[in-house]
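Here comes my example:
=====
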Amino acid sequence: MNHAALLVAVMALATALLRFLPFLVFQKSVPPYVLYLGRVLPSAIIGMLVVYCLRSTAVFTAPFGIPELLAALAVVVLQVWRRSALLSILAGTVVYMVLIQLAF
């Protein structure tokens, strides 16, 4: 039990240190390249996630990627309309699962 508690404490400390380290290092000003990465990385990561999620979509056999396309369309429409990533992703997942289970 003590071993597990020690492991959890060390992991928590390492995680907290890694989270607070940028604030300690960049107290006075943030370098321009860090600001640049803050602007471009979110879009790049979303793009990579889209590619990863759709990489095994079979477009030449039934259902021809229609559930994936409709779910992605639902995510885009909800994101443009409500600007809520959580709502968009959750709704896209629900749309995909409903289509897979009931329609295709």
In short: Residues 2-103 form one domain. Residues 23 and 95 are 40 Å apart (CA to CA). The helical segments are 2-25, 32-54, 66-82, 85-103. The chain has four helices and no strands.
